[in-house]
UniProtKB/TrEMBL annotation:
It is found in: Cell membrane. GO terms for cellular component: plasma membrane. InterPro entries: Acyl_transf_3_dom (IPR002656). GO terms for molecular function: O-acetyltransferase activity. One of its GO terms (biological process) is enterobacterial common antigen biosynthetic process. Pfam families: Acyl_transf_3 (PF01757). This is Surface polysaccharide O-acyltransferase, integral membrane enzyme. Belongs to the acyltransferase 3 family. It comes from Onishia taeanensis.
Length: 378
């Protein structure tokens, strides 16, 4: 009995830190389409980072393989905008105080940012092969640039969370549509090469995605613009509406890929002009994709749970997947797996994406079982 008592006490202490509860989320009571959008977005982020080595090597990659990678990358450019838009849909529909916005910034973004920055500083030391890396590392530089390429998104979200009360004020005042008009005008000037001064920066530019997400995701949000809003609401009930959106999205992808191909081939190097999240073509693609996924339903209970689980763990997947890409590229798991090492073909990209997503998911699930780490993975 004494042994059993001690054993149970140890188990209880261990359970304070480790729990297997919540691995697979219950998707039955959740709104499906936001989960589908978030899960789709994280998958496309992985596609971008897996296909990047192929896309940037314009002269060294066979033209056929490069075109496929270009198309994949073009379609995947909606990923980060979808993250911004779904955040706006959820957060701008209710009043948020300045105090709450600071709390959200610290809890939802700052803690994961500090954790993942630390992870990638350690990765840098591992690649360097020397502990002196930690001594020589410029830690103050983390205030101005991320420790790893993908962490810029968390920097951006940190400041956008701080701006939530201001964005909410724009929404409540009925000025959100007009903000979007000026935002698109700002993006259009760069798209068409016009030199017109409009005072937008990266933060207020990405705030446009959040406000657009609220507008496009909320029924009746266009009522403030009169007859045009009524026409839009009626159009969304048209039976061919989703097919039209998918068609427009596909055409925008073709345009993005074709223009990237043209300017990159002419320059003899990779030119990312049409890939930028602030380019007008990517904005329109993101709008078409958002509206296509909005209202989407799925009858399969199992698939709903899978999608819900990926969605809830999207932050962790975003944080860890470049680490997994590096480990696969270095052959850490017994063989080199990357889009380039497998031949730069479409199948190589697809296999690399599947391996990266699977291993990233397993790592995040393991991290989620440790209670102190749950806040940094979702």
């Amino acid at each position: 009995m004494w042994f059993l008592s001690v054993h149970m006490k140890k188990c209880n202490n261990f359970s304070k830190w480790v729990s297997v509860k919540g691995f697979f989320m219950q998707g039955d009571s959740r709104q499906f389409w936001p989960d589908a959008m978030r899960a789709f977005a994280i998958l496309l982020v992985i596609v971008i980072h897996v296909s990047a080595p192929v896309v940037v090597d314009v002269t060294g990659t066979p033209i056929g393989s490069w075109v496929y990678a270009d198309v994949f990358d073009s379609a995947a450019r909606i990923s980060v905008p979808l993250f911004f838009m779904i955040s706006g849909y959820f957060l701008l529909g209710r009043d948020i105080s300045v105090k709450e916005s600071f709390y959200r910034s610290a809890k939802r973004v700052l803690l994961p940012l500090i954790f993942w920055s630390s992870v990638y500083v350690v990765l840098g030391a591992a690649k360097d092969g020397s502990l002196r890396y930690f001594e020589n590392y410029d830690y103050m530089s983390l205030l101005t640039k991320p420790a790893y390429y993908h962490l810029w998104f968390l920097y951006e979200m940190f400041f956008l969370y701080l701006l939530l009360p201001f964005m909410r004020a724009i929404v409540k005042s009925g000025l959100s549509f007009y903000y979007i008009v000026f935002w698109i005008a700002y993006l259009a000037k760069g798209f068409f090469g016009l030199e017109v001064y409009l005072p937008f920066n990266s933060i207020t530019t990405h705030a446009g995605y959040m406000i657009a997400g609220y507008l496009l995701g909320t029924s009746g949000a266009f009522s403030s613009i009169g007859k045009l809003g009524v026409v839009y609401e009626e159009l969304t009930t048209w039976k061919w509406w989703r097919l039209l959106l998918v068609t427009m999205f596909s055409l925008a992808v073709v345009y993005t890929a074709a223009m990237t191909f043209q300017i990159s081939q002419e320059a003899g190097r990779y030119i990312a002009r049409y890939y930028k999240y602030t380019s007008l073509n990517v904005v329109l693609m993101s709008f078409f994709a958002f509206l296509s996924i909005k209202g989407l339903e799925l009858n399969s209970r199992f698939l709903r749970r899978v999608v819900s689980t990926i969605s809830i763990n999207a932050l962790g997947l975003y944080g860890v997947h470049p680490l997994v890409i590096s480990l696969l590229d270095y052959g850490f798991f017994g063989m080199e797996i990357s889009s380039v090492s497998l031949g730069s073909t479409p199948w190589a990209i697809l296999l690399s994406v599947i391996c990266t997503l699977t291993l990233s998911f397993l790592i995040v699930i393991a991290m989620r079982s440790i209670k102190p780490l749950r806040r940094v993975v979702g």
